[in-house]
Design goal:
The protein has about 325 residues and is of the alpha+beta class. The chain folds into two domains: about 1-180, no CATH class; about 185-325, no CATH class. It has helices spanning about 1-25, 55-80, 100-125, 130-135, 140-150, 160-180, 200-205, 210-215, 295-300, and strands spanning about 35-40, 40-45, 185-190, 220-225, 240-250, 260, 270, 275-285, 310-315, 320-325.
């Protein structure tokens, strides 16, 4: 749950900031081809002239990030750390918890914070590679700071698995920007309520809002690939159509194992924990062309959500299809 809360504390403000500023002014920059690529409503490209560096914009980005960074840490301290005693720095191994869905959540968080950070630094006119590396590493740096705080809390500990996942998310963003100046392989999230929260509502959530944050059984993470971006510009393959591979898990009422549950009749109920893999279609909303700034903002802001589409599920229980893979 906590990695999603960290994301919710930081990302919406970043998105609002980058969208509002990007739409107010367009940066014209040199690129090796004759066309501009539109990313997040602003024309960015492969090469950024040093003459485009804007000190005021850079200062605004740096101050805003510092405020968000510091403010979210204060908020997390009030929500999580203050009620537990401090300890010496220590680590713990949580790599087997929740069938690694929490680790994929860390990857996704770092990836999206990195995407927003990269666009912010490009907007400031910073040198291309610096913008990509500085912005792309924001998610990893931010979440790794949380890991250090965890390491000094008696309730948790520094997780090397989380640290590796944070770094992987940032590198996924950075690698694509360096190679292609765009994101052709994006991470997405979807949720459907599961039946398991009723067995442990304090842990998995008592209502839909809490379920989304707490119940890993209902969460699915997707690697959504845009085939058209790997083809020639003349291709007739829809530029907005993606192929998505998903991962989820089911039957979990605890992190490492399911604690015993006795129903009202005195019978013990068992839940089998298992992994789920999906293959589905998806839509990259940011590649849908529109002249509406409002729609561009909406598409960009909800672009991390998997679009419901026909899907095939693979698990130890067999193969089954669904009209709405979400």
């Amino acid at each position: 749950m906590r990695f999603i809360l960290k994301y919710l504390l930081l990302l919406p403000v970043c998105i609002a900031f980058v969208r509002s500023n990007a739409q107010n002014d367009t940066i014209r920059v040199a690129r090796p081809t004759s066309e501009f690529r539109v990313i997040g409503g602003t024309e960015f490209c492969g090469y950024v002239n040093r003459s485009n560096f804007n000190k005021k914009r850079f200062s605004l980005v740096a101050i805003t990030e510092a405020a968000l960074y510091g403010g979210s840490l204060v908020g997390l301290n009030e929500l999580w750390y203050k009620d537990y005693p401090r300890s010496s720095m220590h680590s713990f191994d949580d790599n087997q918890e929740w069938l690694q869905l929490d680790k994929i959540g860390h990857v996704t968080t770092s990836y999206y914070v990195g995407r927003v950070g990269t666009q912010l630094y490009k907007w400031s006119g910073l040198n291309r590679k610096k913008a990509i590396w500085y912005g792309g590493m924001l998610g990893s740096v931010y979440q790794s700071t949380i890991e250090v705080l965890d390491g000094y809390s008696s309730q948790w500990g520094f997780s090397w698995g989380d640290f590796a996942a944070n770094t992987a998310g940032s590198l996924l963003c950075i690698g694509q920007e360096l190679a292609w100046d765009e994101q052709r392989i994006i991470l997405k999230f979807s949720f459907m309520q599961s039946e398991y929260s009723k067995f442990r509502p304090n842990l998995l959530g008592k209502n839909l809002q809490e379920n989304i944050l707490k119940d890993y059984n209902g969460q699915t993470y997707w690697l959504s690939v845009n085939p058209a971006s790997f083809m020639s510009d003349e291709t007739r393959f829809p530029k907005w159509l993606n192929i998505a591979v998903g991962y989820g898990a089911n039957g979990m009422t605890g992190g490492n194992f399911n604690p015993p549950y006795i129903d009202g009749n005195g019978f013990q109920i068992y839940h089998e924990r298992y992994r789920q893999y999906y293959l589905s279609f998806d839509v990259d909303l940011t590649r849908i062309k529109t002249k509406s700034k409002f729609l561009n903002t909406v598409f960009y802001s909800i672009g991390y959500l998997k679009i419901p589409a026909p899907a095939i599920e693979f698990s130890e229980k067999g193969v089954k299809g669904s009209l709405l893979g979400f």
